[in-house]
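queue> holo job accepted (3-isopropylmalic acid)
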Amino acid sequence: MKKRLYRILLLPGDGIGPEIMAEAIKIIDTVSQFGIKIEIDTDLIGGSAIEKYGVPITETTIKKAKRCDAVLLGAVGGPEWDSLSHNLKPEQGLLTLRKSLKLFANLRPVKTLKPLLDISPLKSEIVNGVDFIIVRELTSGIYFGKPRGIKSTPRGEKGYNTEVYYQHEIERIAHIAFSLAKKRRKRVTSVDKANVLESSILWRKTVDNVHKEYLDVELNHLYVDNCAMQIIKNPRQFDIILTNNIFGDILSDESAMITGSIGMLPSASIGKNTGLFEPVHGSAPDIAGQNLANPCGIILSLALLFKYSLNETHIAKAIENAVSNVLEKGYRTKDLAEKGSKILSTSAMGDYINNELKKILTNRS
Ligand code: IPM
Ligand code: MG
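queue> job finished
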C-alpha cells in the first residue's frame, strides 16, 4: 500500500515565478481532494532570498529541501541583481540547490501538442509528432569545473572556465538515458564535441561502454553543432538526446521552439533522493506582475513531479491531459496566441486547467 502522504517544498523565486506557482498550488489543492495528502512548505530562492537574507539560498532552505519528497521551483533571476558578484547572483541559488541535492540528471521532454502545431515557427509537418527527451547532465561539466575565474594578467583581464567530466559522472547519466530509452522507442543520440574536446572524447568512449549493457537500444553519436541543425531539420528522428550540462542547456532552449513557446516546457531533475521540478523558461522580468505568463510549464513540471518523485503516474497523466484538453478548446496565454484563440491571463488559464483536472479526476474515481 502506498503511503500517499507527501511533502513538497515550493520555491516560487523571482519575476513570474510567484504568479505561475499560484497556479500550480491550485492543482496541488485539487489533487489533495482525491485521496493524496500533500503537505506543502514555501521558501525563498534567488533574488527574493537575496533581498531577505543576503544570499541566493540559505542552508535552512537546503535542509528543508532534503527532508521533502520533491521541490517545485518557479524561476530565478532578474535585472535588479545583475550587478552582484558572481557567487551572489540569483542563479547561484539554483545551481547550489541542484548540486546539494545531487541532481545529476535533468530530463527535459519536448513533445508537440496537436492544438499548438501552428504556433511553432517551424512548419507543422516538421514538428507534428515530435516526442523526445533531452537528458542533460546537471551537476558537472563547465558549470562547476575548476579552475574558473577572472584574473588580471599582463595581457589584460582573463576569464576562464573548465569543462571537466569524470568517467563515473558520464556513466551514471548514460544509464539514466538508456533506461529511459528502453521504456520508449529505444534510441539514444549522444551529443558531444569529440572532434575538438578531450572531455567529449571520454564522454563518447564511456557512453559506448555503458551501451554494451543495453544492446536492445540503438545508439548514435552526433556533434553538437550538427545536432543543433538536426533538431530543426528533422526533430522526429530523436527519442532520447543524451548530453552534457552546457550543450543540454542550449539545445533545450532551441528545442522549445518546436513546441511553439518556451512557456510550455517542463523539466525534472533527479538524483538519488529529493527531485527538483521546474519549468525550462526563466523569470521573464519583462512580463512579471502582469498576470500574462504561461502557467503550463510549471503545471507540466508538477505532472513530472507526480510521475518521477511520487510515482503517482495516473495523476501525472491526468494533469497532462487537463493541459492538452484546455489547449484543444482554444484557450491560450499570450505567448501561445494565434488568430481566433481565446487569450487568457495566467490565473484564468490556471483555473481552466484546474477545472478540467477536477472533471478528469472525478470521472475516474
Ligand atoms: C536552465 C537555466 C539555468 C541553467 C540558469 C538559470 C542557471 O538556463 O535551467 O536551463 O543554465 O541551467
Ligand atoms: Mg537554460
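queue> The mean pLDDT is 96.
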